[in-house]
Amino acid sequence: QGFTLVELAIVLVIIGLLLGAVLKGREMIENAKYKNFANQISGYTAAMYTFMDKYNRAFPGDMINADSEIPGVTSGHNGDGNGEINNGECNTNGEESCLVWEHLSKAGIIGGSYSGAAREVPHNTFGNNIEFYYGNVWSEYGHWFRYDMIPLSVAKRYDKEFDDGQPKTGSVKATNWGAGMCLNGDNYKNGDTGSCFFYVRF
């Protein structure tokens, strides 16, 4: 015996409600991740200022006497004091872009335990690396936080909310994580599928 039209209508309504609940749940999860990411950016920026206020405007990682001023910092893990976090991303033991995280953590300003080792860096909300260094991003030199493999939809949303919405200008910038993954010319690519190197100027 087949289903009546009323029974079929009830089934379709139930399916619609379930799909709506799933989509709403996904939206809530995505919004929560985005807010966590935005808070993470604010938190690390605040951590830098807190360190500089505490240690006479020295950058973590660049501080020349960190091993004598900050308990727990490995002997010799000092910067050169030139006001720049040199060497790009954290690839070599003891270089300044690695010492950033050791100095911050040993000073009790951020969580975690960092020793200045190569590739020992915090992870962003999406599970990938956070770097901090002095460098050139789209023809602008400065100190940048780099958040790796950020979803395209998150990058566009944050840039629009906190900056100018353009990946090559302003204090928030982006580059491709793999060819064509983030940008189309001077703009973010269409759609929400893709990943970016995401830079926030300090």
Helix content: 25-40%
Radius of gyration: 22 Å
The computed structural class is alpha+beta
Order of helices and strands: HHHEEHEEEE
User: What is the end-to-end distance?
Assistant: 70 Å
Number of helices: 4
Mean pLDDT over the full residue set: 94
Number-wise, the strands total 6
Note the overall shape: elongated
Strand content: 15-25%
Outline the low-pLDDT stretches: none
Largest sheet: 4 strands, antiparallel
Strand order of the largest sheet: 1-2-6-3
Task: Annotate the secondary structure layout.
Layout: H1 5-54, H2 66-69, H3 96-106, E1 130-137, E2 140-151, H4 152-162, E3 172-176, E4 183-184, E5 187-188, E6 195-201
Antiparallel strand pairs: 1-2, 2-6, 3-6, 4-5
Describe, in plain words, how this protein is organized in 3D.
This protein is α+β, with helices and mostly antiparallel strands and 202 residues long. The protein has helices at 5-54, 66-69, 96-106, 152-162, and strands spanning 130-137, 140-151, 172-176, 183-184, 187-188, 195-201. The protein has four helices and six strands. The mean pLDDT is 94. The strands form two sheets. Strands 1-2-6-3 form a four-stranded antiparallel beta sheet. The N and C termini lie far apart (70 Å). It is elongated and about 85 Å long. The chain is 38% helix and 18% strand.
Attribute tags:
single chain; 202 residues; alpha+beta; 4-stranded antiparallel beta sheet; two-stranded antiparallel sheet
Briefly, what is this?
The protein has helices at 5-54, 66-69, 96-106, 152-162, and strands at 130-137, 140-151, 172-176, 183-184, 187-188, 195-201.
